[in-house]
Design goal:
alpha+beta; 9-stranded mixed β-sheet; 12 helices; about 20% strand; globular
Length: about 400
């Protein structure tokens, strides 16, 4: 229902007329009652079940196998709610009203590994919330990856490195919590006197700056990267912390800069990674993909919380994350070409809402797609890949 665009329990009724396709489908009242009965213990069990499937999927996909770093992205997002009757909602800093959940995603797959539903006035810099979603995300990783990354684990147990990226909200003691879990960090830098002084040292030193790259590995016009670790005060940061700064031509509408300038916008991040500065900057800019992941959740049921009860809405957000993960795995393992990374709307019009007839022939159910449907070839290829997997 959520994958197809449903936003409320009543939308389940549209699936009940196709029992031969979907099997036994509950009524909207049964669905409503179930969400109100999903307590914290049951929801934890569901996350554990999803983690078991994730381990199987990740062992089959080329984007998650190998020995490379496992990158986690943490970010919060405002969800507008147009009702004061829903428990747990509150006004937020942008003048609206609603929830302010915090998420943790796996960058390789885009799936939500953990989330916490918070009121709209929840702080963006709350360390406990960051640590909570990080611990939940690590618990949901395959055991060979999670090993060595739980609180108190011996660093010698680590078989595969895990790194977490956050915006400036993670520029707090959260980095020490990462160190306690043997997790590397990359967090967006905030403007302060020490950073100002460091940028001033190399502002006009062309030898200190190196050509920045685009995500495609091509030179980024006008942009350059420099490492300022030796010029900045890193007292209070974990040993091995570095400061990487990028400058790019100032343009209209540009966000805030680390350093006042009429020519360049300066942006940087702290990291304990040992990567080359240009590669570290390129990787950190990839944190922007978290916005795409959140947008996909909002397009799949998280833009509207249908219940007045807070725990029921927490269960709703959990199920939204589960549904999105199932679609992402389906796309990773089965779907060809452009649909492997397609947004929810494209998947609905290209796959889920395909006009077809379900007929019975020779004791088999056969789906006959309407003549001339533009994605017929992709759908048939997907069926072939499903057959290979099963």
């Amino acid at each position: 229902m959520l994958v197809g665009g449903g936003e409320a329990c009543t939308d389940i009724e549209h699936l009940r007329s196709q029992t031969s396709l979907f099997g036994s489908v509950p009524s909207d009242s049964t669905l409503h009652r179930t969400f109100h009965q999903l307590n914290a213990e049951t929801r934890t069990g569901l996350w554990d079940a999803i983690a078991g499937v994730r381990a199987e999927v990740w062992s089959r996909s080329s984007v998650t196998t190998g020995t490379g770093d496992v990158v986690l992205d943490i970010d919060a997002s405002l969800h507008e709610i147009h009702s004061e009757n829903k428990a747990g909602t509150a006004p937020h800093y942008k003048g609206g009203f609603g929830f302010h959940p915090i998420y943790c995603f796996a960058d390789a797959t885009g799936e939500c590994l953990s989330e916490t539903l918070r009121p709209g006035n929840a702080g963006a810099n709350t360390i406990t919330d960051h640590v909570e979603v990080l611990d939940q995300a690590i618990a949901g990783l395959p055991e060979e990856i999670a090993k060595g990354h739980r609180l108190g684990d011996d660093p010698g147990l680590v078989e595969r490195r895990v790194r977490v990226r956050t915006d400036s909200a993670g520029c707090t003691n959260f980095v020490w919590d990462c160190r306690e879990r043997n997790v590397e960090f990359s967090v967006v830098a905030r403007s302060n006197a020490s950073v100002h002084a460091a940028i001033s040292r190399v502002r006009f030193d062309d030898q200190a700056w190196r050509q920045a790259l685009t995500q495609a590995g091509e030179p980024r016009p006008g942009a350059a990267v420099a490492e300022l670790t030796e010029f900045v005060d890193l007292t209070g940061w974990p040993p091995g912390t570095r400061l990487i700064v990028r400058r790019e031509p100032l343009h209209q509408g540009a966000q805030g800069s680390l350093f006042p300038s009429e020519t360049f916008r300066y942006w940087g991040h702290y990291t304990d990674s040992t990567a080359d500065p240009v590669e570290a900057d390129l990787d950190m800019r990839g944190h922007a993909r978290v916005e795409d992941n959140i947008r996909r959740l909002k397009d799949s049921g998280a833009s509207r919380f249908p219940f007045t009860d807070l725990d029921a809405n927490r269960a709703w957000l959990d199920v939204v994350a589960f549904a999105d993960a199932l679609v992402r795995w389906f796309q990773l393992l089965c779907v060809p070409g452009r649909f492997a990374t397609a947004e929810p709307k494209m998947m609905r019009w290209g796959f889920w809402h395909t006009p077809a007839r379900l007929i019975r022939h020779a004791r088999r159910n056969i789906v006959r797609i309407i003549d001339g449907w533009p994605t017929t070839a992709e759908i048939l290829t997907t069926y072939q890949r499903i057959a290979l997997l099963t």
